[in-house]
Here is the input.
Amino acid sequence: MVSRSTRVPTAPTPPARLEPTAKERYMLQLTASRALHDKLEKTRRATAKRPRERQKAQHAKRGYVTRAARREVFARDGAQCTYVSVDGERCTARGWLELDHIVPKACGGSDEVANLRVRCGAHNHLHAEETFGKEHVAERIHFRRRKSEVDLARRGLVRLGFKASEAKHALDLVCERHGADAAPLPKETMLREALSVLVP
Here is the structure.
């Protein structure tokens, strides 16, 4: 019989992680309640109690998917990844879904509902690799990560009191120095080297 004072140990909750993936975009990994999950999914799907009428095409910005279009696509696709395997099995993913352009924007694809579908991150990535090739996709990811690190370092230098133009010049020199590096330069190293340029 277990006494009331005896506590059953529970597995520790993994710490939250926040990592930059692109300019103004971050990967956030955390343990969340069902209520928070539902709230985040509602935001991603642009759901609303009383949605406004869909914007006319001429009022929608080029390269921008309207909230009305987002709602329509999620409703049409049943809020589930639309990828279907060669044996006819549909992907069961319903969380952390993304909108994917059937004809990519880089190939002239529009932001209209007919050219959009719901995909999980893995199958969105797979479509990109099938369209542009693995090497190209890897290069783009590398470029976005590098750009993100540079942007974070630039903002850090500005917060330290340097002018934006000075920070940009120093970081340009650092990036030029490490242009052939295989991996993105960590922002800490970038800051250190930029500071050595700014404060000789």
